[in-house]
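ugh ok fine here u go
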Amino acid sequence: MNLPAAFVLCLLASLAARAENAPKTPSPAEVSRPVTESELVRVTLTPEAERRLGIAVEPVKTRESSRRRLVGAEVILPLTSSTGEAPETSASPGALLQATTPSELLRLAQGQIDADVQVELARIQVEVAEKALARALQMLQDKAGAMRVVDEAKGQYDSTEASLKAARARRQLLGPALFDAGHPPRHWIRAGVYVGDLDQLDETAGVDVSRISGDPMNPPVTARPVSAFPSANAAAATVDFFYELVSTNSPFRLGQRVGVSIPFRNRELVLTVPWSAVVQDVSGGSWVYERTQLQTYVRRRVQVSRIHGTEAELSRGPAPGTSIVTEGVAELFGTEFGFGK
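structure:
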């Protein structure tokens, strides 16, 4: 049955009037005047306060820099001889065992010692067989010996010479000597580089090696690239880069995990500010204070990509030429949040 149109309109009007008269539920939150982040952190100082805080400003600068990739690495023994030459043995699978755990290194060192002993014994046996062969030949020449004795001596000499070659081959499979008292200790760094970065990283450039903790009290150590037997980790999709520490007074221990900062091939302009200009909040955010006008400062968020000496390179920050506070930053930060003077 169809209701008259007038009745439907009256019903809708009644429901609308009842909804207007019903009590409204208060909103859980209301923003009366939205403000930007910079308006919340504006600080205005008097000339006296500015002098007391020791405020100094400098412009944001740009400089050409090579981006770097920080990768994990470990300290290993050299895969070449102590003289720095790369012998044929360095390309053997056994030589790669030098980059393993300390317990395996000890077993490898013991194996090298045993192999050296076997080589020396085989060499002595060759000398004895050689003298016996020479004596048999001399007796045969003097009509005091027999050809059978010469043949036996020749067979003994060939056998000992073959044993010496086999002993030397086994020794070569174990690689260069791990410990050489006649040369200062050298350390190599083996860094696993993601294969997707191979075309971008400069594998011929020197690198900075630092502790994983990134402690500023322990500055990075320079290392230079060296050639070694190619190795990779298929499971981790990484290829190994090898470096040698320039200084023999290495602060690292064998087997220690370290960080290696490898530069990219292409250089680019980056924003730089003094590291003293950067302040961090309790959440780990990095900030600088921009002077927008006389005695007025605004805290700007920045993103630090790298610390180079006393400078911080920014991947995001104020435009070049912007005046930022470089001295008195901590005091200004304390003033903003109420625990400074």
